Amino acid sequence: MSRQTTPESVLTQLPGWESASFRELEGFVTNRPYLVEAGGRKAVLKIDQVQRGAPFNTRPKEAQIQSAAQKAGLAASVIYVSDTVLMTEYIDGVMWSLDCLEDEANLDSLAGAMRKLHSLPLSGRTFDTKGAAREYARNIGDSHAGKVEECLRKIDAGPRPHNLCCCHNDLVIANIINTPKTKFLDWEYACDNDPFFDLATIVAHHNMTQQQSDYFLDAYFDGDGARWREQLARQTVVYDALIWLWSAALPKGKV
Predict the structure, then answer these.
(1) Residue 26: CB partners within 8 Å, gap ≥ 6?
(2) 176/214 same-domain check
(3) CA proximity to 64, closest of 48, 88, 35, 46
(4) Predicted pLDDT of residue 16
(5) Highest mean pLDDT: which of 18-27, 149-158, 245-254?
């Protein structure tokens, strides 16, 4: 039996972090991250006991994409990565909450950050929405069979990518921070996808009003948002179906 990786076993290998203090951060669903502090520096440490696979990135692929995003001013820098460990600088700033979406200045900043994100080099891995949906569906009980089939049909009927580009694929407010520049956290799903998936995540996951959605689209498309409402609506159907499957597949108490 292989020995489990622990924060101590990782930190003792990293110069300057050998005597770091750490504590587990709570409230995370797919991660068990630790806040690490040493010599006035803070970092976030994520440890897996087995190597990750789709729909997640491997940790090296996540680090590659996050490093490209960091160069564009969108993410924290990577300190250390292995097949099962990722350690990144801790970002100080204001975490977003729902009321941030009511501020037009925040929406302008978010739209600008997302345009930068969608201009990053392609990652070489495409997000497999249909594959992720079926993986989630396999972990849902038979009592929801009707709803599962409905969601799978909606995802299968979804639009082809309008313009494949590097996407975050998990742009919920918990992953957005102002430093004061808008940056993104948790790049574990990031890879190539339809940019409208990221836009739909912002709009659908947070139940934006039509007024908020219209303003956000105009901000992203430099005043030409109305032309893209139908494309956004079609991708929103896909997102809503996928997030239902993801939520239903979680063990009880994890949502």
Answers:
(1) none
(2) yes
(3) 88
(4) 95
(5) 149-158
Residues in Cβ contact with 238 at an 8 Å cutoff, skipping those fewer than 6 apart: 129, 154, 155, 158, 159, 197, 200
Dihedral (CA of 169, 171, 172, 176) sign:
positive
* pLDDT value at residue 252: 63
The model's pLDDT over 85-103, given as tens digits with 9 standing for 90+, comes to 999 999 999 999 999 999 9
Q: What is the CA radius of gyration of the chain?
A: 19
Longest dimension (CA), the chain: 59
Question: Span 137-153, mean pLDDT?
Answer: 95
Question: Does residue 53 fall inside a structural domain?
Answer: yes
- In terms of phi and psi (left: phi > 0; alpha: psi -120 to 50; beta: otherwise), the region of 124 is left
Please provide the DSSP assignment of 108-136 as one string. Answer: HHHHHHHHHHTTSPP-S-B--HHHHHHHH
Write down the pTM of the prediction: 0.93
Give the tens place of pLDDT for each residue, 28-38. 666 679 999 99
Which of 72, 89, 106 is at the close of a domain? 89
- The CATH number covering residue 196 comes to 3.90.1200.10
Host domain of residue 12: 7-89
Please identify which residue in the block is written with the tokens 């709803």. 147
C-beta separation of 43 from 87 below 8 A: yes
Q: Is the pLDDT of residue 61 over 50?
A: yes
One domain, residues 198 and 102: yes
